[in-house]
Amino acid sequence: MNPLDLFSDFLFLGSKFHRALYQKNILREVNIPQPVVSVGNLTVGGTGKTPFLDFWLNYCQQQKINCAVVSRSYKTPLAEARKILFQTAVDAPTPEGAKTFGDEAYFLASKYRQFPVYTGPSKSQNAQLASQQEKFQLLWVDDGFQHYRLHKDLNWVLLDATETPENYRAFPLGRAREPLATLQKADAIFLTKCNWAPPKNLQFHREICASLKKTFFEFNWQLDFSPKEKFLFVSGIARPSQITDQLKIKFAEDFCVHLPFSDHYNYQASDIQKMLEKMKKHQLKEVWTTEKDFAKLILLWPKDVILNVARVSLQEQSDLTEAREQLRRLCL
């Protein structure tokens, strides 16, 4: 047998064993008094959890639902749970903040100043600290589907509709952390990037949800920006090829150049120089980046070059009444 097959099988078995330890109460869950909503996925990244959380935090803001958010401090020096703090309500995000707390958590904290955001190595410890120090109606957990230690009242799972069936093999043969059968634990499934997906891939995901008899919702993804001249697009995200594909669809080949970096990348001055050299080589006049990358780049960025932000917007393609009702019931 191929060693990668053995490793993939071991990964799924390890996940199943870990989950069983909590199901049989051999390991104990952490419970907090406030209701907890997990936003998670099955794959190793790139389903769009951050734009999705942004969408629902905006909804909670409009509905005056007081929230808190916890996230794991991936690729940061944090050794314990911390609240992301700004000195004033109008403090600009900084690269140091994103490097210290994590780019996704820091982006959400800077955008929703009224919602406390806690980050650190352990989601359950982050949740406990938030519960002790804050007053809120609802706790959102970023990437919580595989974090069994924290009790969740709602498990919302995102599936990227562009994924092929083969991608749901265990990593590293595919991109899956757990088998598709674990979707039975989900309270609702959200299909993302439906407008970017080949029809057969979208239909595959719809059939998965139908076979599991799970409530599911569909979202289109829109990259919102309007360059006026030839431009460089810089991104440090999972699955950068999706951005490349969308840029090719939207713009002529000689109108844009995509410079991708690894997910959660911490930019250095040498990277800025590389970007400027790329602009000169291809005679590019504008630079665009994602919202979470902007916070890391802006203080390193030369003042004589404008750094523009491209935003990802979600367009609901399904009636979200049931999803909103799930949240409403938790807040009663």
Q: Over the alpha carbons, how many angstroms does the gyration radius reach? A: 20 Å
Beta percentage is 15-25%
Give the N-to-C terminal Cα separation: 53 Å
Give a count of the beta strands, DSSP E runs of length 2 or more. 12
Unreliable runs: none
Structural class: alpha/beta
The biggest beta sheet is recorded as: 12 strands, mixed
Helix content: 25-40%
Side-by-side strand order of the widest sheet = 3-4-2-5-1-6-7-8-12-11-9-10
Average predicted confidence as pLDDT: 92
How would you explain this protein's 3D organization?
- This protein has helices spanning about 5-25, 50-60, 95-100, 105-110, 125-135, 200-210, 240-250, 270-280, 290-295, 320-330; strands spanning about 35-40, 65-70, 80-85, 115-120, 140, 155-160, 190, 215-225, 230-235, 255-260, 285-290, 305-315.
- The model has no long low-confidence stretch (mean pLDDT about 90).
- The radius of gyration is 20 Å and the shape is globular.
- Strands 3-4-2-5-1-6-7-8-12-11-9-10 form a 12-stranded mixed sheet, with helices on both faces.
- The protein is built from 10 helices and 12 strands.
- The longest helix has 21 residues, at about 5-25.
- Helix 3 (about 95-100) packs across helix 9.
- It has about 325 residues and is of the alpha/beta class.
- Helix content is about 35%, strand content about 20%.
